Amino acid sequence: MIVTIDENSGFCFGVTTAIETAERELQKGQLFCLGDIVHNGQEVERLDKLGLETIDYDDLRTLHNVRVLLRAHGEPPSTYHIAKRNNIEIIDASCPVVLHLQKRIRDTYLQHHGTDAQIVIFGKKGHAEVIGLEGQTNNTAIVIESIHDLDKLNYEHPIYLFSQTTKSVEEFREIVEEIKRRRGERLEEKGEEIVFEYHDTICRNVANRVKKLQDFARSNDVVVFVGGKKSSNAKVLYNHCLEVNSSTVFVSSEADLTPEILQQCHQAERVGICGATSTPKWLMEQLRCSLENDAKRL
Ligand code: SF4
């Protein structure tokens, strides 16, 4: 059994920067992080041991005169307002790609505020990044999680579509085509055309990984995909691996290596380990050691 780690897997630029910022700022004293710094329990635990205390919005409202790190996902304006009110120093590690998207959505909202225009976000309801994006529209944006949510839109009114940065490009394209189709029907019925602007705001740091990841998945007999259970990027990338290699398994840590998975790996010639933009390299290394040590015991 040869075990290989995908060299293109692991933290994206935004997450790497946020973690480096946390490590640097921790050396200066007490530091809180609003929400898990990354959707990976093992990495959160590692930083927790270094002193990074994870808090939620309720905690933020009660804290005063402390330092709080904002993670790569970005935050809605309300977070900055609370921080200002409570004299909290913000260490802003929001990813620049997300900040740029927030600005585009905010500009669109301000431009069409008070009209019947609909700002639509293709994303996961309740995801931290999406909460930050909705906040740019005073929470008036319509969030669609999939093509099945398109009935939520009113095709008599203008539509401005954006995407959460970690969604699938293919799904976004399907949604665009379906909106165009419904808009076309409306044109035929009433002879009126509604405005439909769409912006593919999917981060290429993620999207460009798909092809390389699928090549990697194809070149192995069994693929062990390592990702956090809360990570939407992990789910997307895992499904891309599964599309091309049905012997792909999802694990979050060594503890998830069940006897069935271990047996499946030992029967294979080539086992590939890969992960999401939130999966630390050290965790993939740990899994490799675990698989190899287990093979030696047999
Ligand atoms: S996936 Fe892209 S947008 Fe999201 S944190 Fe990473 S670099 Fe930034």
Task: Provide a short characterization of the protein structure.
This protein has 298 residues and is an alpha/beta fold.
Structure description:
The protein is α/β, with parallel strands linked by helices and about 300 residues long. It is about 45% helix and about 15% strand. The strands form 3 sheets. Strands 1-12-10-11 form a 4-stranded parallel β-sheet, sandwiched between helices. Strands 3-2-4-5 form a 4-stranded parallel β-sheet, with helices on both faces. A 4-stranded parallel β-sheet has the order 7-6-8-9, sandwiched between helices. The mean pLDDT is about 95. Bound molecules: iron/sulfur cluster (SF4). Iron/sulfur cluster binds near residues 95, 97, 165, 203 and 205.
The residue ranges in which pLDDT falls below 50 over 5 or more consecutive positions are: none
Q: What overall form do the CA principal axes indicate? A: flat
Fold-level CATH name of the largest domain: Cobalt-precorrin-4 Transmethylase, domain 1
Biggest sheet descriptor = 4 strands, parallel
Task: Kindly report how far apart the N and C termini lie.
Answer: 12 Å
Number of domains: 3
Radius of gyration: 22 Å
Topology at a glance:
Blueprint: E1 2-5, H1 13-26, E2 31-34, H2 41-49, E3 52-55, H3 57-62, E4 67-70, H4 77-85, E5 89-92, H5 96-112, E6 118-122, H6 128-135, E7 142-144, E8 159-163, H7 169-190, E9 196-198, H8 204-207, H9 209-218, E10 222-226, H10 232-244, E11 248-251, H11 259-266, E12 270-275, H12 281-297
Parallel strand pairs: 1-12, 2-3, 2-4, 4-5, 6-7, 6-8, 8-9, 10-11, 10-12
Helix pairs in contact: 9-10
Bound molecules: iron/sulfur cluster.
